[in-house]
Design brief:
The complex is a heterotrimer. By secondary structure, chain A is an all-alpha fold. The termini of chain A are far apart. Chain A is globular, with a radius of gyration of 20 Å. Helices cover about 70% and strands about 0% of the residues of chain A. Chain A has 13 helices and no strands. Chain A has one domain. Chain B has a five-stranded mixed sheet with strand order 1-2-5-4-3. In chain B, strands 6-7 form a two-stranded parallel ribbon. Chain B is about 20% helix and about 30% strand. By secondary structure, chain B is α/β, with parallel strands linked by helices. In chain C, helix 4 runs antiparallel to helix 5, helix 5 runs antiparallel to helix 6 and helix 6 runs antiparallel to helix 7. Chain C contains 16 helices and eight strands. By secondary structure, chain C is of the alpha+beta class. In chain C, about 50% of the residues lie in helices and about 15% in strands. Classes of the chains: A mainly alpha, B alpha/beta, C alpha+beta. The interface between B and C is large, with 48 and 47 residues.
Amino acid sequence: MSGLAWGALYGLAAGLVIAIAALIGVWGERKVAGRIQMRIGPQELGPFGLLQTLADTLKLVLKEDITPAAADVRIFRIAPLIVFAPIAMSFVIIPYASGFAPLDTSVGILFFMAVPAISVIGVLLAGWSSRNTYATIGGLRAAAQMISYELPRTLSILPFVLLAGSMRPLDIMDEWRWWWIPLTFIAFIVYFISSIAEVNRGPFDLPEAESELVAGYFADYSGIRWAIFMMAEYGGMVAAALFGAVFWFGGYLHLPGALGVIMLIAVATLLAVAMIWVKWTFPRMRPDQLMGTAWKVLTPMALLQLVIVGVVIPWL
Amino acid sequence: MNITELREHLCATYPDLCPLFSIEFGDGVISVDPDRLLEAAGNLRDLGFDRLSVVTAVDRPTHFELVYRLYARSMSAAVFIKCNVDRDSPRVHSLAGLWPAALWQERETFDMFGIVFDGHPDLRRILLPDDWEGYPLRKDYEDETVIRRPDYI
Amino acid sequence: MTGEIGSDACFTDRIEPGVDELVVNVGPSHPSTHGVCRVIVHLDGEVVTKAEPVIGYLHRGIEKMAENRTYLQVVPLTDRLDYVGSMYANWAYCRTVERLAGIQVPERAEYLRVIVCEMQRIASHMMSLGSAAADTGAATMFIYAFDQREKVIEAFEELCGARLTYNYVRPGGVSFEIPEGWTERVLQFCRDHRDGLELMDRLFFGNVITRDRMKHVGVLSPEDAVAWGASGPVARGSGVNWDLRKHDPYSVYPRFDFDVPTGSNGDCYDRARVRLFECYESCRIIEQAISQMQPGPIRTPGLPRLLAPRPGDAYDHIESARGALGVYLVSDGSVRPYRMKVRSPAFCNLALLPLLAEGHMLSDLVVILGSLDPVFGEVDR
């Protein structure tokens, strides 16, 4: 089979996996949020309300896809895809099981850091092309925020490159030892916070702050395009949780086959629940406080972690 | 402070306000002419009436009666200032310089009665749209939405 | 423009963005405007250079309508003023009518009025805190606060059949005797409510992001608070110790032992927290009122349906959840008010918005607006 066909197959599979992950993510968020808020959450459709998100998606697909009259039509229409595609692509370099990553490349870390960052362009374009002041402010906020948090997030991954001596995720997994957890704990905090900021979730959801900017950069989107934005958000959250589980908690923990996959998914679920928990507990930050956190707190912390790991390595 | 004490206090400090002071149904009322309103209000503020709680007007058959209610927190006392203005060209000096609280309330009074407050920095309609015609709380205001109930209800 | 009659300048004509300014039209339909308020915001980057509230979207002409109704028919109109605190407007109006007509109210009715109004204060403050939290993005606090409010509303529903527009306080008394077991349920609610407040205090006010968001934001000095006519929690948040229940006591309030919580910084945090502490005090007042209340009539006997008070005017005010709510009534001796004026605390508090918002960020604007707690039924009347 040719490379193109393989690519299409991978794309289809990845799309399906992300769609399912996002569906379960939305359902899980609503369930967890419900518990936090002393209510039950979705429960009518399917067992435990599992089909609720499916019904919601169906509704969104059937809704009219409205393009504002003033919008820059072509950019407006393509922006959700520019947001979603890089997030979807980031799933392919995660090592899901022992010796298996859909895209096994020697620059995997670089890929994970660089590719999802492209989605900021989509967010900016979405805000800009809507020709709506709320959306413009939301898009600009998102651009500033995502670019700022890119830095501590990247720095927080680098200790693993140092420790494993490779940028290939599978190599890092092979090298992974349990004492990396305490050693890279500062980096984990940095990674966790900046990942939440990176996917624009509370308390860092300023670009879409509903109480200030209505819905920020996707204020004018409806139907399926809006759903794509939501999928990108949940997909980003799932990817961040998976990546956190892979590096900081050993991913499949050297376990073979399905057992390792289950281990990975279990840890990633815990991380995702923690992200949801944070979102539903904390108020939103203010733009200047957000930037202050990125540049004055998280970046120095990540650099400190890098120094600690650098000092420790010669004794290993 | 009850009303007679307030009267004594007022008369002792500002004797020229004393003849304007009357007691109507237990409330202290100072009736002034429009051209002396600012001065009287300023005197009362210096006396300790630090809050302007109400600015409004009543459309009497012959004139507009402007009603200000002042409150002194230190004395727990209230006093009304009433000021009759001409119905055809209602003008009076704004109290916004003494109490910023008057800013919006005078705008509302202008909006509803058409009373012009001289010296108000931003006098325009507040509750009604800018292009509204007429002043609804005047008794002679008419538009298609005003329905008069028959007297026997 | 100095009030030229018939001027046709629309609001849009006045919007002239300065150099490097972005004008954002927040509202009138916006998630955080607590009703239908429109704020024209001039932004320099994210910083508000000018915020101009545009109100009147909910103006129904209640003062004009009152001139066309009998004194009793106006009571349901007052429900529609402050629709999250209907009891207050009922009571303020009825107090003025009673003052104008010289009606003595039975003691039990006064106690019932105090109880329902303190419960209303809890309900109203819970709504205020919940929506202030939602403005900052704390959705869970919103639900917790509304959970508490719901219990008050349920008690009111049991009492008078309505959940929002109670029409409960009438000239000369109240409309219904309390149902059986109601006081026990209210006392139980007061006990539970304190735990709920404790939880909310820890969840929301103890949170570091909340403190960053609300402290030193929208600082109102005590002098400005008095001069601009601010009242209620907005003034008390700035340290102005002025509560009509304490300092110009009305009804049976002198018989209760309660404190007036005040803030010290005059920022959004203090204003919101004063509301939280007031709920504790309301619980204390409710408990004392229930223990002091004696059986007796709840309405002045022999009161005619058509009141025709003496010609003259009267003003009376009460401390509502938003501040000093006053009603000014002018009677010409007929069965209808000649003029009704509602001194709405929300209107006066909202006038502070341009003063407080300037120099803060767009995100702070919604927090400041939330901390002023405007209810637009009352602002626009």
